[in-house]
Amino acid sequence: MFEFARAVRDRLPWLHQVHPSSVARVLEQADVDPARWEAGDLTRRLEQELRFRANAAKFGQRPEAAPRAYRFMNPSEVGDPLGYTRWLLAEYIDPAEPTLTEDRALYRAEQAERAAAQLALVDDRIAAEPAVPRRPRALQLEAERAERDAERAAAARAAELTPEEFSRLRAESDREIAEAARRKRRGEG
Q: pTM higher than 0.70, yes or no?
């Protein structure tokens, strides 16, 4: 609570000279729970409410109040910083309402659910679509790519061979080539 009160104090200019423990006491009395609020969200909510009330007064929806009454006060205008803060919290913060922090978390969860549903829908569409026959050129390119990959894999395996293994494989290959050439000359192949 102390760190939360310090963050709130840093965001509200009339509280800069007040000790954070005093601000914490006012926040506790107003049932502001730091587990439910972030300091920026709390001050933003207060600003939004004050702006809304100032506009309502300015445009005649609240004729009993001057628009000037609904704004954050300058530090020099506030005689009792804790009293003003207590009044703001009592007037504009309802502990039973969801906080901006909770609203943001709920919004993010809803967005994640929507994204998951869209991905599932796309996966279902892809699974339901019939396979499109491939064109001959695409098949040829795919076969060439597979052949190059096989050659690269064979070259990588050959690079890993010891000199003795390489000599043995080369001798076997030379014998097979010579045998194939003899069969061809005899007319067997």
A: no
DSSP 3-state of 189 = coil
Q: Which tens digit of pLDDT belongs to each residue from 88-119?
A: 888 778 777 777 778 888 888 889 888 888 88
DSSP string for 105-139: HHHHHHHHHHHHHHHHHHHHHHHHSPPPPPPHHHH
- Token pair, residue 44, equals 């933003």
Query: Within the chain, what is the greatest distance between any pair of CA atoms?
Result: 117
| Distance separating alpha carbons of residues 52 and 25, to the nearest angstrom | 27
Q: Residue 184, by phi and psi: left (phi above 0), alpha (psi -120 to 50) or beta?
A: alpha
How far is the C-alpha of 90 from the C-alpha of 168, rounded, in Å? 90
DSSP assigned state of 102: H
Q: Which residue has the tokens 């910083």?
A: 81
- The residue ranking higher by pLDDT, 55 or 65, is 55
- Could you tell me which of 13, 23, 27, 5 has the C-alpha nearest to residue 77? 13
Assess contact for 37 and 46: CB atoms under 8 A: no
